[in-house]
Specification:
Length: about 325
């Protein structure tokens, strides 16, 4: 059965008197029990989409059906069946972790005893029962993120929305959260997560939708998406300038299938990276171009991203592109 269905969703905002088209006609379907990743750069429209799917924002046009409920007509029923964990997390710092969860469960209509039971179950599920009596502000960033996850899970939602669940976490905390998400999948919960971490989409998701400038530009399993880009990618770092010359020097070579410029580097697609590198180095030498570094990899999701959007997600992160403050609010259905 389909857990999430959207047809031709659109949403604009007004900013300084101008219309910003955040979402421009999105269609998607997520099957029950699937982990679906929504991958895109800053400002692509991920949060706007996830908030519309999770009943938190009204679309300008289009249709949403989630957990069997048609929106906006069946919003109340839908909220009982879905959970939402926003970027800001949702815990109240003035009360201990367990009380936060009990309150959340009560808000979802559970009786006192059941709310306590479910709160303890959710904390156990995210490995935090030992901090039940602590105030959220005394916890580490990773622990606070897991409290937010528990808040989204306390009423056993069938569909869980996670907006950038691991943003800013260190690798160990991220790995711990990935395990929680994998466990949710095993329990049959449908998970819709937004991310701009390629590795996260690759490691966790059954299917991925790539969003850019408010539109889905590609979707499929990570393996299917990568299959469309077989071979190796060679990244030639050239600094701020010089990309154009490198591109010119390399795109004529018979072993080169395609060349794309990204900020500070040129990505070259070849069948066999190890064989191509000496040829590329010679060609650069002949043109008097010096590369800062050359790296060979199997083509991955970033290459899929580059192909469909014309920009590299990894390179834009490396170039220090910071995310704007979104002020996202948090809510657990
Ligand atoms: N409330 C708002 N008012 C005005 N503009 C908005 C509002 N919310 C989002 N936008 C704009 O809509 C576009 C999409 O934003 P959105 O937050 O959905 O992107 P995103 O992919 O989630 O980005 P990020 O990864 O930075 O969270 C951006 O240009 C953003 O500035």
């Amino acid at each position: 059965m389909t857990a999430i269905e959207a047809e031709q969703l659109t949403r604009s905002f007004r900013r300084r008197g101008k219309a910003v088209e955040a979402v421009r006609g999105i269609d998607l379907q997520v099957a029950e029990g699937e982990v679906f990743g929504f991958l895109g750069p800053n400002g692509a429209g991920k949060t706007t989409t996830v908030r519309m799917l999770a009943t938190l924002l009204q679309p300008d046009s289009g249709r949403v059906r989630v957990a069997g409920c048609e929106l906006p007509g069946q919003t109340r029923q839908a909220r009982r069946l879905i959970g939402y964990v926003g970027q800001a997390g949702g815990a109240d710092d003035g009360m201990p972790v367990l009380d936060n969860l009990i309150l959340q469960a009560r808000l979802n209509g559970l009786g006192r005893a059941e709310a306590r039971r479910e709160a303890e179950r959710a904390l156990t599920a995210v490995g935090l029962l030992d901090v039940a009596d602590r105030l959220p502000r005394t916890l580490s960033g990773g622990q606070r993120r897991r409290v937010a996850l528990a808040l989204g899970l306390v009423h056993r939602p069938r569909v869980l929305f996670l907006d950038e669940p691991t943003l800013g976490l260190d690798p160990a905390a991220r790995a711990a959260l990935w395990e929680e998400i994998r466990a949710l999948r095993v329990s049959g919960t449908t998970v819709f997560l937004t991310t701009h971490y390629l590795e996260e989409a690759d490691a966790l998701c059954d299917r991925v939708g790539i969003i850019d400038q408010g539109r889905i530009v590609a979707s499929g399993t990570p393996a299917d998406l990568k299959r469309g880009i077989s071979g190796d990618s060679v990244t030639v770092s050239v600094g701020e300038r010089g990309g154009e010359r490198v591109k010119e020097a390399l795109e004529r070579l018979p072993c080169v299938r395609e060349v794309r410029e990204t900020p500070g580097a040129v990505r070259v697609y070849v069948d066999n990276g190890a064989e191509a590198v000496p040829v590329l180095v010679r060609a650069l030498d002949e043109q008097g171009v010096r590369a800062a570094s050359i790296a060979v990899e199997s083509a991955g999701l970033d290459d899929v991203f580059l192909k469909h959007t014309g920009s590299s997600l990894r390179m834009s992160r490396a170039a220090g592109e910071e995310r704007p403050e979104t002020g996202a609010s948090s809510y657990a259905a």
